[in-house]
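Blackboard transcription, Thursday session:
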Amino acid sequence: MPPSTELEVCGLTKRYSPQVSVGPISFEVQEGEFFSLLGPSGCGKTTTLRCIAGFEELTEGSINLHGERIDGKPPHRRDVGLVFQNYALFPHLTVFDNVAFGLRLRRLGKAEIADRVGRVLQIVDLPGMAARFPAQLSGGQQQRVAIARSLVLEPRILMFDEPLSNLDLKLRIQMREELRNLQRRLGKTSIYVTHDQTEALVLSDHIAVLSHGRIEQIGTPAEIYERPASAFVAEFIGSSNMLRGRIIERGEAGTIVETATGLRLHCSPEREGEVETAEVSILLRPERIHVGAPGESAEPGQNRVSARIADITYLGEDLHLSLDLAGGERLRASVKNSNAARGWAPRQSVELLVDAADLRLLSR
Amino acid sequence: MNVGRTRPVWAFLTGPYALFLLVLLLVPFANIAVYSLHPYSPTKVFLPGLTFDNYRKIFDLYYIRLFGRTLRLGLITTAVCVVLGYPLAYWLARARPRWQAMGLFLLIMPLMVSAVIRIFGWIVILGRKGLVNQALAALALEPVKILYSDTAVVIGLVNIFVPFMVLPVMAAIERISPNLEEAAHNLGANWYQMFRRVILPLSLPGLISGCLLVYSLSISAFVTPALMGNPRERMVAQQIYDEVLVSFNWPGAASLSLALVLLTAALMFGALFATRHTGRHEKVS
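(Written on the board underneath:)
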């Protein structure tokens, strides 16, 4: 049986003023899936989340949860859990009472509440913390309480509003892993709002990239990274080199583009209708540039470009190179710190090898 | 510079006001305490010798009633201030800065008007031929007698003391993140449940300070009950005034004063002791 649609957002629009508005935004979230809304601050991702939770009223559009329209319901009657960015734990209640908050409102028996709270605290790995107050917990622990508090009510979907942004880097990575494992284990349909592309890539089944209140692209992490639909998505996800060029030849074997400085590059044939204009941006990921010694020969289907190393940034595991092309363009390349890389120095001439398949053309 | 020795900075910061209090409050107060222990004489300020008669007198029915009425009016005034002030404090705490500034200005305004002028305004409104009764007469209804009654005193006291309730409550509510309200709704609480389980307990310290302020100000009020109340149904401060300036019974006035101060202090400490655990959760142990 294919998974059913759990959440359906249709033409969601929120107008704050004639100048400031979000949407229309439409997307679907399948049952059990981890769906991320990714974008820079002010792109409308939090507004979308708050509309689903019922804290903002839609100007237009509809929200359906499990086939039932919910955008007219008050927030407390929606079966939607929300984990706040600052956790929003009740400071006057213990961990137990925080988690039991929603259960008590549902008038469950004492024994059942104790049982369910105990189980959920086990799930989020907070044993023996039930009697503490939020102020006595670390950021990561507060985070888990916030998740437990929503999870214990078994909502249809669980939503996260930038939940890791208040944690330090190491804890962020650890919590990211835990969140992923937890979601995979429980199979809870989740919507995750973040501006951090790594979080979105690591956690999600599908990502919607937002910019200026619109969805730029929806896809799996690999689709979004490998085949960005726009220059914005390409620049926002991962680091990228963008060259300006125009298509001079389209053929069976591929497309040939020429940059402003006369550099000709062979690209794989693009998909039907992907690039409409002749003027294009050429996207090249830094890790897809192979840096070789001068004179290294290209294999068929590879582009060979001469360059000179302008600068080397040493990152231990990786090296970041700034490379000047003959025409004056500058490319960034990210290479593994290998034996071959040991001899490199600024002002050295190198040969860049780039697969035709690693060049992406985007309409301009 | 001598780094090793810490300067008593606290002495410089608190010293001037401490000195002010010492000279202008504690010394006169000690003086009153001494007066209250001397016997009364109709011809002298007081007679030599020590006696507890002035305090024993407070347990006469007249004085017990006087204190009872004072405490009762204080309680009513405080209750009305809570009912009127809490919603206002919530609105102010959650209002946009511009509305908040405007609201605070309007709230404080009664305090900028002299008590006599404000009360004169109330007399115009509540008097036998005042606006209220004119309006009732226009509707062919019986006139009411509000002025020179306990009702008038409560109205007058509430009028000045509402800000003392609103300000601490507002400050407490402002410290509660609106996210907590949203979290409560998200967990299934309607507005009333959210208020009772989140806003009310978290604003309780502010509500307690507001009640203590209004109550202690109300039970020591003088001008408002003197000008708006029933002259035969007085409050403690009026009685003290009369004993000083009308019957020249300074020891009696002194013992009443001290009793009022001790009562207020006892209520304050009692309330603070009973609620000493609220607000503790914010500290990391």
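Lecturer's comment: Chain B has twelve helices and no strands.
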